[in-house]
Design goal:
The protein has 184 residues and is α+β, with helices and mostly antiparallel strands. The protein is built from four helices and seven strands. A hairpin with a 5-residue loop joins strand 5 and strand 6.
């Protein structure tokens, strides 16, 4: 099943997501649907609030970036109930986009290294450290579970300059190649 992507302006994108327990109903199917939705939407990662579920789960597949960054090849993971233990390393700037903020790409500063604890789809526990683009993608998707969006990392002036585009998204005037919806 392909879910419509929840757009900016939907309250669920600003809520802190809830942990899930082993045995969560239809979890395997939901994860499969998350990947399918991400691929159809040309995404690199997708967090559950972006499909209307306020649970602590996100998926990533770095294959789309493998041509420019070979370290992303084979980086396909499910993160359940993740906790970022620490963000370290030099901060660096990279242009990020977000399926919930169509047609917006902004230079975002993030730490170069992230240590994260999480469960995979089989509820096996992991405590891992990632660097570079892998760390950045994890931080971006994790933000969604915390109710944060990439625009929250921008200066007030830059957010003000984006106001017109953001209003267009809220009013449904932002066309995409993928299915979208605005939750009230």
């Amino acid at each position: 099943m392909i879910y419509p992507i929840v757009l900016y302006g939907s309250p669920i994108l600003r809520k802190k997501s809830q942990e899930i327990a082993k045995g969560y109903p239809n979890l395997d199917k939901f994860i499969e649907d998350m990947f399918e939705t991400m691929y159809v939407s040309d995404g690199l990662g997708l967090a559950s609030p972006q499909v209307g579920k306020s649970i602590r789960l996100f998926v990533i597949d770095g294959a789309a970036l493998a041509k420019d960054d070979p370290s992303m090849l084979g980086f396909k993971k499910v993160f359940i109930n993740p906790v970022i233990v620490e963000e370290t390393g030099d901060e660096w700037v990279y242009a990020e986009g977000c399926l919930s903020l169509p047609h917006i790409r902004e230079e975002i500063t993030r730490h170069g290294t992230v240590r994260i604890q999480y469960y995979d789809a089989d509820f096996n526990f992991f405590d891992e450290t990632y660097n570079g683009v892998r760390a950045r993608v994890i931080q971006h998707e994790f933000d969604h579970l915390e109710g944060k969006l990439l625009i929250d990392h921008l200066s007030p002036l830059r957010r003000k300059l984006l106001r017109g585009k953001l209003n267009d998204i809220v009013k449904g005037r932002s066309k995409t190649e993928y299915k979208t919806r605005l939750l009230k």
